[in-house]
Write a structure and sequence with these properties.
Chain lengths: 176, 142
């Protein structure tokens, strides 16, 4: 990684690393960042209101996934473009739905997507923007800082995929 | 780690990022690589504003903003456009990680600001030639 200070590298890495590695426990399941290097960070169960918040995000992910699926069925040529988005949301959903074991993961009726590439893409973009707003709001209101971090990553991922959908020429490069 | 600690860590990282972007900008030809030049220049400006805001936030939190180092390490040669591009993507990826740490350790306006900046850095990776990820800033979840 370029740009590390010549004289304070260890201090910076340590300071950032400790914040990234605090254990995160939600409801009955765990979302575990790596173990703290010094093992001193206690697991802190978040307040119950966060479970409701995660359930809201889970429902939004299910809804957005249904839109992606419907768009792909309506316009199969969109599959290469939408598949990475759906895969990312599936991973987000797998992690978060496991964190609300007591809540039913809602089923979402397949929405009607207008025929035609442009209309289908527009519907997906609107859906992704709605998801982005919901995840961002959840991140800002989460009582647990570690949950907020996970949701911030989901929001950042959704924003990245949204940018790639807005301009399909962007974001097609290989990951660094 | 307290909010102040996370702010200081983010500021220290921002000093390094800004310094490195200065190097990347100096090694990018505006005429030969205009798109990359524009992307690096826009990033430099964003990070300069981010550094200034972090200084204010550190003071608001009762701290003395950490100073920049005299110089920073550069990984490998940064001469050709693809090397500059990769380095810039790496800077933004590291920035997302740092800001997500601040998200975890803050609330209210500071968390809102950190989330906005993290999202910008995540999206800017695409402008710099990077790809969308599943867990930007939280690689341990991949």
């Amino acid at each position: 990684m370029p740009g590390r200070p010549l004289t304070r590298r260890t201090a910076v890495v340590s300071a950032v690393g400790s914040a990234l590695t605090a254990p995160f426990v939600l409801a009955a399941c765990d979302i575990d960042p790596p173990a703290s290097s010094d093992g001193s960070s206690p697991a802190t169960p978040p307040p119950p209101e966060d479970a409701e918040l995660v359930a809201t995000v889970v429902a939004e992910l299910v809804r957005a996934g249904a839109v992606l699926e419907a768009a792909t069925l309506s316009v199969p040529a969109l599959t290469p473009l939408l598949e990475p988005v759906a895969a990312a949301h599936a991973d987000h959903l797998a992690l978060l739905s496991g964190a609300v074991a007591d809540a039913d993961v809602p089923a979402s009726e397949p929405p009607a997507i207008a025929a035609g590439r442009a209309r289908a893409l527009a519907a997906v973009r609107r859906s992704e923007q709605r998801l982005q707003r919901a995840v961002r709001q959840a991140c800002l209101t989460a009582a647990s800082g570690d949950l907020a971090r996970v949701l911030a990553s989901v929001a950042a991922s959704t924003a990245q995929h949204g940018a790639a959908l807005a301009d399909p020429a962007v974001g097609q490069a290989e990951a660094p | 780690m307290s909010t102040l600690d996370a702010l200081q860590a983010a500021l220290a990282e921002e000093h390094a990022t800004l310094w490195t972007y200065g190097v990347l900008g100096a090694r990018t030809s505006q005429s030969a690589s205009p798109a990359l030049y524009d992307a690096v220049t826009a990033a430099y400006r964003r990070h300069r504003a981010r550094r200034d805001q972090l200084r204010l936030l550190v003071r608001d939190a009762g701290g003395e903003p950490v100073a920049a180092a005299v110089a920073y390490e550069l990984d490998g040669a940064l001469v050709r456009p693809p090397q500059v591009q990769r380095a810039a993507v790496g800077l933004e990826a590291a920035g997302v990680e740092t800001l997500l740490a601040l998200v975890a350790r803050s609330s209210g306006e500071v968390r809102d600001w950190a989330l906005t900046e993290a999202t910008w850095s995540a999206v800017w990776q695409l402008e710099l030639g990077g790809a969308a990820q599943t867990w930007p800033g939280a690689p341990e979840l991949d």
